[in-house]
Write a structure and sequence with these properties.
six-stranded mixed sheet, mainly beta, six-stranded antiparallel sheet, elongated, 203 residues
């Protein structure tokens, strides 16, 4: 149910963000009625991949305890003391754009509930998420050979199948029947490739 005396507005400190950026969300909560509101619980739903930054919650610029966070990290539950008639309070926190955040519009929304069950309007704010390296990704290609000497001619080398090959971030793949492997969507820069020795054949 909607209660017209409890009103929310929500905004962000930026309209666009990249992976790894921090966004400061601000929620203005107003009691438009003449009586006290009673205790309030604010439910704030974060977009996919955007995560609350620890110790960033403020109420009227005063640091608060941590909100209750759902197991998937998407929903924040924040307790707010009773508002007197016509009183306004401002809540804010910081969230990080993680690598799991998809490109496109990330919509954050919040709603406030009174103890008696009535609710405010739903306040929303959009931030455009971009992946700056999306159009500059590479494919890393290699082959695992079985050789007695690295000086042996490449055309006579024998590729080794079913070898587990890993990148420094834990991403892995397995060589094909000719010992070949590849990793797609690699950000330009220096990378470390290594073999899982447990996948090597005996001998």
């Amino acid at each position: 149910p909607f209660a017209s005396d409890l009103y929310l507005e929500k905004k962000a400190n930026k309209t666009a963000a990249n992976l790894g950026d921090f966004i400061r969300y601000e929620i203005t909560l107003q009691n438009k009625g003449t009586g006290t509101s009673g205790a309030i619980t604010l439910k704030d739903l974060l977009p996919l991949g955007i995560r609350y930054k620890k110790d960033s919650l403020l109420l009227d610029a005063v640091k608060q305890g941590e909100p209750s966070i759902s197991s998937d990290g998407k929903e924040l539950s924040i307790s707010i003391p009773s508002l007197s008639g016509s009183q306004t309070r401002v809540l804010s926190y910081v969230a990080e754009v993680s690598a799991l955040t998809p490109e496109g519009i990330a919509t954050n929304q919040a709603i406030a509930y009174k103890t008696l069950g009535s609710s405010s309007n739903i306040a929303r704010v959009d931030v455009q998420i971009t992946h700056p390296f999306l159009n500059n990704l590479n494919t890393l290609i290699g082959t695992v050979y079985e050789v007695e000497s690295c000086e042996k001619n490449e055309t006579t080398r024998k590729g080794v199948a079913n070898i587990k090959v890993l990148l420094e971030d834990g991403t892995y793949t397995t060589t094909d029947s000719q010992g070949r492997y590849h990793f797609e969507k690699i950000i330009p820069g220096t990378h470390v490739v290594q073999i899982n020795e447990n996948s090597l054949p005996q001998g």
